[in-house]
Specification:
It is a single chain. This protein is of the alpha+beta class. It contains four helices and twelve strands; from the N terminus they run ααββββββββββββαα. Among the domains are: about 10-40; about 125-305, Thrombin, subunit H. The protein has helices at about 10-40, 40-115, 285-290, 295-300; strands spanning about 125-135, 140-145, 155-160, 165-170, 175-180, 185-190, 195-205, 210-215, 225-230, 240-250, 255-260, 270-275.
């Protein structure tokens, strides 16, 4: 027997496998021919596909879930970016609107200042406010205008509401304003309704002035408008000073004391108006003598309406000496 020859059992197994393969091929060819001619396997395939559709759906479910998650994440990122862009645009629009509103308010305030000039046609100068000091013992404004801008000591200062104060010091680039509310300031005023002449004093408060020594017989009421009387020549007549807010007897019960609400906005605003028509009044003879004695010129020229009045000097004797 040759060495490569296998056992009879092995050869019979190979022959059986070959015969089974040929039988399967013949069956497959027969089914193909019958399906091609009769089409009876089409219904079997349709039913099989219908039965396997849930399996296909379950098999594709993870992929669909992944696609949806990616789409949602991309959509969320896009919406977050668009939201950020819109928020920035909204903030920019809000800032622009705020600037426009500020400009509109500034325009209205400047129109009010221009409208504050009386009908008499007083010459005025617009001056920006550089600094403000509202200490109870020192009520001052510093203006961004000085002597090189034509500002002079003694000029009246007003705003859209009324009288603010007067210039007391001038430098080349700045000027100092003594406010009506300064404790050392006094203004001759009158009641617009009756013409009663009074004096308004500062109390160191930006929201209050004081009317002192009001005679009990004077026709002064709460709510009366108080304006400058023009006495002394420092402040032109007719400028609003304030409104009487309260009246009460003083300690002696012989006079009334009134609280006056200022007409000017002393604690706000960015600009004021300087009156240029009225020249500084001439100094009294006593003040001139004091200035000649070595006092500063500004102090000598300051009339009694810019500070609380000092006691009047005794009248000179008119009788000739014997």
């Amino acid at each position: 027997m040759p060495a490569y020859a296998g056992s009879p059992a092995a050869r019979s197994g190979d022959v059986a496998g070959t015969l089974r393969l040929l039988a399967y091929l013949a069956l497959a060819i027969a089914l193909v021919v019958l399906d091609h001619r009769g089409g009876w396997l089409a219904q079997v395939r349709a039913r099989a596909e219908l039965a396997t559709q849930p399996l296909w759906w379950l098999a594709g479910l993870p992929g669909r879930i992944g696609d949806n998650v990616r789409d949602d994440a991309a959509t969320r990122n896009r919406l977050a970016h668009e939201n950020g862009v819109l928020r920035n645009a909204l903030l920019i629009s809000g800032a622009r609107l705020a600037r426009l509103q500020t400009a509109a308010a500034e325009n209205a305030r400047l129109r009010g200042l221009l409208g504050a000039t009386p009908r008499g046609g007083l010459d005025v100068q617009l001056a920006p406010i550089l600094d403000i000091d509202l200490d109870p013992t020192r009520q001052r404004l510093v203006l961004d205008a000085g002597s090189r801008d034509g500002v002079q000591v003694g000029q009246s200062v007003i705003d859209a509401g009324g009288l603010v104060g007067q210039i007391i010091a001038v430098k080349p680039g700045t000027a100092t304003v003594l406010l009506l509310t300064d404790p050392d300031h006094a203004v001759p005023v009158m009641v617009a309704r009756t013409g009663v002449r009074l004096v308004a004093y500062g109390k160191g408060r930006s929201d209050q002035l004081q009317l002192a020594n009001i005679p009990l017989s004077s026709d002064v009421k709460v709510g009366d408008a108080i304006v400058t009387s023009g006495l002394g020549g420092r402040f032109p007549a007719g400028f609003p000073v304030g409104t009487v807010a309260a009246l009460q007897p003083d300690d002696s019960r012989a006079f009334l004391v009134g609280d006056l609400q200022p007409a000017a906005q002393l604690d706000r605003g960015r600009d004021v108006l300087l009156l240029r028509q009225q020249a500084a009044p001439a100094a009294p003879a006593a003040a001139i003598g004091t200035a000649a004695a070595g006092q500063p010129a500004a102090a000598a020229a300051k009339p009694d309406i810019g500070a609380r009045p000092a006691p009047a000097p005794a009248p000179a004797a008119t009788e000739p000496p014997r």
